[in-house]
């Protein structure tokens, strides 16, 4: 089969012929229909973030496809089923799994990190956490539910616990942040979207943001003043979806006394925090990682009923041979979500 193989940082992915995986009894072999291109993949390629499995490794952790083969012990899938593959597989028995926090499983296995991923014609995965995709949903575009939709859902619903009427400011309207906007809007929040690209802010408006702010030409104080004016003193919740130290600082400063900062974007840099302000104003800070398996059926239902949209967010499609073009677009900030289609 053909696959885009990662050989190490600062190198383009190489299209190679590799052996089609052979499954074990608890696994399914999936013929990939599409796989989203995520900023996490770019961290491995551009920034040298290490993978658990040393290269060569097939990246890609946001796939959908058709079951090609099911192991003897698999009861919930059969050949021909449409399937959504989550980025992370939980063990089901560690302390966090038993507490219902499978997204931070102590023994997690991540697709395209611990094991070969889905920038390939076929991939094998444990069947346990995979999800059935209804016929009503488009098979290719639904790939982004795996991460670009589910990660914002977990952040908004479980970590930030957004309620109707909350004011939510979202820093960053890229592939994850744009879906934070639409999930928070679907949850009944009044959303302010902040970014430096007008096209992304226009999309945020279409997906439910009440206000948008282009911060490219604003001083920090002016930006915070505008947010406080729009929210009557500060947002109830700020969600940072970039992983930029400056916007992480701004997110904490943008919330009111008693407010919440939810951190979704990843950075390996240290970020200074005003501890006195955090203490005196009782500001909460929560991290948010991925999504629990139990939440995927709810997300899929929200897509079915139109509360969450896929097509506007999938801005580009590429063949496997052109995968590096997808990463170039991401580097330039010109895409929301690109998908590789097979």
Strand share of the residues? Answer: 25-35%
Mean pLDDT: 96
The CATH architecture of the largest domain comes to: Alpha-Beta Complex
Q: Quick one: CATH superfamily of the largest domain? A: Medium-chain alcohol dehydrogenases, catalytic domain
Radius of gyration: 20 Å
Assign an overall shape.
Answer: globular
Q: Classify the oligomer.
A: single chain
Q: How much helicity do the residues have?
A: 25-40%
The computed structural class is alpha/beta
Give helix and strand order, one letter per element, not per position.
EEEHEEEEHEEEHEHEHEHEHEHEHEHE
Secondary structure: number of strands: 18
| Count of discrete domains | 2
Largest sheet: 7 strands, mixed
C-alpha termini separation: 12 Å
CATH topology of the largest domain: Quinone Oxidoreductase, Chain A, domain 1
Name some characteristics of this structure.
globular, Quinone Oxidoreductase, Chain A, domain 1, Rossmann fold, 26% helix, alpha/beta, 18 strands, six-stranded parallel beta sheet, seven-stranded mixed beta sheet, 342 residues, 10 helices, 2 domains
Structural account:
With 342 residues, the protein is an alpha/beta fold. The chain is 26% helix and 26% strand. It folds into 2 domains: 2-147 and 291-341, Medium-chain alcohol dehydrogenases, catalytic domain (Quinone Oxidoreductase, Chain A, domain 1, Alpha-Beta Complex); 151-287, Rossmann fold, CATH 3.40.50. The strands form 4 sheets. Strands 3, 5, 6, 9, 10, 17 and 18 form a 7-stranded mixed sheet that branches. A 6-stranded parallel sheet has the order 13-12-11-14-15-16, with helices on both faces. α3 (150-159) packs across α4. The longest helix has 12 residues, at 220-231. The mean pLDDT is 96.
